[in-house]
Amino acid sequence: MNSANESAAFWEKHYASMDAQWGTKPNAVLTALLAGLAPAPGTALDLGCGHGGDALWLAAQGWDVTPVDVSQTALDRVAAGAAATGLTDRVHPQQHDLSETFPDGAWDLVTATYFHTPVTIARDSVLRRAAQAVAPGGRLIVIEHASTAPWSWQAGQDIRYPTPDDVIASLQLDDTWAVERGDAPQRTAAGPEGQTATVTDNVIAVRRTS
Predict the structure, then answer these.
(1) Dist CA 124 CA 139 (whole Å)
(2) Measured distance CA(205)–CA(72) in Å, rounded
């Protein structure tokens, strides 16, 4: 699969087949990371937002959030979650196939949390565009799989995952950026049917200093 239409079709089918409550809790790696960095709430862009767990949590912390996904079903569920929690004025969903279009503007925080897809896209280019969307003084946070969970669509495949240094190098940042985090911790993850496994994540946080 390698076209925008196929991307939308894949993710529409994916979310339509899922429990609407799956993925509505924030990612624990992201919440812990932001607790340590302690940024003041501002504007945030959540790339590949899914059912909006991160976006809704950020909004509840005072951020003005633009959640982005290619799936309209996912975005509708994010909007419904925002309405149910009184956060509509802080949550502004946008539909984009990020390999084709990207939101206009600059944000204090840009997140790409498990921005993986079986559809062929120029992922490195999307992440470089994400870095360009960070306002001066803001941060880009990338949290991604560095191992394969048993419930993944990639389970059983021989995959070479990039290291955190590989990811940071792929962003092609200049000397106006500072690396605040770049490591690969392990954690216990829960799958869609309640199963658990030890997995490894790449955790990257970079700050635009000027």
Answers:
(1) 17
(2) 29
User: Rounded to the nearest 10 degrees, what angle do helices 4-16 and 72-84 cross at?
Assistant: 50
Residue 93 amino acid letter: P
CB 46 within 8 A of CB 65: yes
Reduced to 3 states (helix: H, G, I; strand: E, B; else coil), residue 74 is: helix
Q: What DSSP string runs through 37-65? A: H-PPP-EEEEET-TT-HHHHHHHHTT-EE
The per-residue DSSP string of 90-140 comes to: GB--EE--TTT----S-EEEEEEES---SS---HHHHHHHHHHTEEEEEEE
Q: Take residue 197 and report the two structure tokens written for it.
A: 């496994």
Burial of 5 (0-12, 13-18, 19+ CB in 10 A): exposed
Q: Is the pTM of this model over 0.85?
A: yes
pLDDT at 78: 96
- Residues 6+ positions from 147 with CB-CB distance below 8 Å: 161, 199, 200
Place of tokens 């993925």: 23
CA angle 60, 94, 81 (to 5 degrees): 40
What percentage of the chain reaches a pLDDT higher than 70? 93
174 burial class (0-12, 13-18, 19+ CB within 10 angstroms)? Answer: exposed
